Amino acid sequence: MPAEPGGSLAIVALEGIPEVRLGDDVGAIVVDAVRRTPGLLPLLPDDVLVVTQKIVSKAEGATVDLTSVEPRPEAVAFAERWDRDARQVEVVLREARRIVRMANGVIISETAHGFVCANGGIDASNVGPGTGDLVTLLPVDPDESARRIRATIRDSLGVDVAVVVSDSFGRPWRWGIVDVAIGVSGLAPLEDLRGTPDHDGRTMRSTVRAVADELASAAELALGKSAGRPVALIRGSAVRRGEGSIREALIPAEADLFR
To answer: Please, is 203 exposed, middle or buried when counting C-beta atoms within 10 Å of its C-beta (0-12, 13-18, 19+)?
Structure first.
């Protein structure tokens, strides 16, 4: 049976995280921030650390210098029509496994990871030095990124906490973005409640909670988009621990009703 939540959560944005650069050890940066943020130590086994994609990508070198990009005619035409940067459009097209749709200035694409999202997760905001000529890509293997951060925290602080790497995605049929999980380590990204009774004793037949996405979205409320706070700790979520992968959360083509 899944663990029952305790009825309350604490979400704390970590303090003192500097501008992250290529080659930085994100896990070590997180450990330092945990130590300097009042009230977090000692860590608890059910704590979850949510780390935003942007600092992971910058540390791992998942970036592109737009001054080196020569856009194809298709990218130039799309950019001119919708007032976009043709170089960034070109990077989105290069990185896409599949283009789902190009309209209204937005490219919906499938990434090499299997994510379907706007502009392939490629982003020019909050990139630090080089802004305007630099974009970040998604990490090559966000699950592995989460595993490395988790291992450093465990080795340094002696507690094995779960780690979620998050990013902002839009949603079909609704305005606005929410943060979702693009990588996990130490927890199952889904909680499958099918076959278990609801509060009235009726057997649930289709309910699967997107726990990792819920954690990512909850953390974003504490982090914000422009406050320079890229990591949050969530305490009290009672998540089911395990060696899950974000791939478990992706709907396969044969079950995708919208493909």
So the answer is: exposed
Q: What percent of the chain lies above the pLDDT cut of 90? A: 77
250: number of CA atoms within 13 Å, CB side? 17
Listed as own residue / partner, the contacts of 243-246 with beta carbons closer than 8 Å and 24 or more positions apart are: 243/185, 243/186, 244/184, 244/187, 244/188, 244/189, 244/190, 244/212, 245/143, 245/184, 245/189, 246/113, 246/142, 246/143, 246/181, 246/182, 246/183, 246/184, 246/189, 246/212
Residue 41 CB: number of other CB atoms within 10 A?
12
Per the listing, tokens 């856009």 go with 71
The 3-state DSSP class for residue 164 equals: strand
Question: How many C-beta atoms lie closer than 10 Å to residue 246's C-beta?
Answer: 25
Residue 101 — very low, low, confident or very high, per pLDDT cuts 50/70/90? very high
- Chain center to CA of 145: 11
Query: Please, what is the end-to-end C-alpha distance for the chain in angstroms?
Result: 33
pLDDT exceeds cutoff 90 at 193 = no
Give the containing element (helix H, strand E) for 224: none
pLDDT digits (tens, 9 = 90+) for 123-139: 887 676 666 789 999 99
Which residues share a beta bridge with 203? 197
Q: What per-residue confidence (pLDDT) applies to 240?
A: 85
Rg (CA), the chain: 19
Q: Hey, which bits of 104-161 come out as E strands?
A: 106-110, 116-118, 134-136
